[in-house]
Design goal:
By secondary structure, the protein is an alpha/beta fold. It has helices at residues 21-33, 50-60, 97-112, 119-146, and strands spanning 12-17, 38-42, 65-70, 73-78, 88-91. Strands 2-1-3-4-5 form a five-stranded mixed β-sheet, with helices on both faces. The longest helix is centred in the last third of the chain and has 28 residues, at 119-146. The protein is globular.
Length: 147
């Protein structure tokens, strides 16, 4: 992976230890959607240190925002919060790519002082899209059978 930030430019720090690649890609896509640069740092840490790593990385970031990811565990931290109280501390299932993207978007929105997205919103939107696709598919089949 290549960082999309210059060293001097403010960016979100992302600390990684063997992350689930598909989830990481979605987090980065969420940041990119919102136009916020990031810097990746590969370091080794234990699961019990992930919050501390995220907090320290947020303090080092000029934006005050960091994400730490170990395997499928993701922590989003903001330097203005207490160390033991990150904004997001979640274990994602391999298939929860929509939630991973929301984490990236929320990291960016935190900096831009915009309302954060909720995980429920993405599930509802995804369900609506699935229903819409199914209805369109049925209607197309119905129209083909009439002709």
């Amino acid at each position: 992976m290549i960082d999309n930030a210059n060293i001097d430019k403010p960016h979100v720090n992302i600390c990684l230890d063997n992350p689930v690649e598909s989830l990481l890609k979605e987090i980065l896509a969420g940041l990119e959607e919102e136009g916020i640069p990031y810097q990746l740092k590969n370091i080794n840490f234990t699961h019990d240190k992930i919050i501390k790593i995220a907090y320290e990385a947020s303090e080092e970031s000029r934006m005050g925002i960091a994400i730490a990811m170990k395997n499928d565990k993701v922590v989003l931290h903001y330097s203005k919060l207490k160390e033991n109280h990150p904004l997001i501390n979640i274990r994602l299932d391999y298939y929860e790519k929509d939630k991973a993207r929301v984490i990236g978007c929320n990291a960016a929105r935190l900096y831009k002082i915009m309302p954060l997205k909720s995980f429920e919103d993405t599930s509802e939107n995804e369900l609506r899209q699935q229903v819409k696709s199914a209805v369109i598919s049925v209607l197309k089949n119905f129209n083909l059978n009439i002709s």
